[in-house]
Write a structure and sequence with these properties.
Blueprint: E1 2-5, E2 8-11, H1 18-31, E3 38-44, E4 49-54, H2 57-70, E5 76-81, H3 86-96, H4 100-104, E6 109-114, E7 119-125, H5 131-141, E8 146-151
Parallel strand pairs: 4-5, 7-8
Antiparallel strand pairs: 1-2, 3-4, 6-7
Amino acid sequence: MEKKVGGGWLPLDITGDARYSEERGRIRGLLSPLRAYDGEMLWDFETATLTVQMTTEDALQQARLLLLVTNPTWLRVLFVQVQYSADELQELSSRLLPHQTTWTGTTGISGGVDHYTNRLVMLVDRNDPEADTLIQAINDLGDPRITLELYGSEFGAY
């Protein structure tokens, strides 16, 4: 959205995030060679802190070098090592969630990738008639990249 000011057009920044967003985009571009190790960047608007997650210490060191020395950023940046790349978790999600009938025999699982926990979260309504089947099928996968969360109760969802 733009606003006309003094004969020219300026971007209208309602949230105050435009300059941060632009810098995050620049950083994403700088880190693109490390995509295979990328655990996804997390942005905390309240503290204006960017968390860069990578799967290896070497990738974290390269990210530190890029963002603190070679092409410094003015953002506050934290560097965290995680177990799984964002691509790996997304591939797992794409393989399991849309095809749950194939591996569970039924449907009823929702969820998605949670970059904050670095896991694929699978949600099951404990009141679903197939809940026991779904929970067992998820547990049978034995995959440490998956977190099962139950919701719902006899008194309604919480």
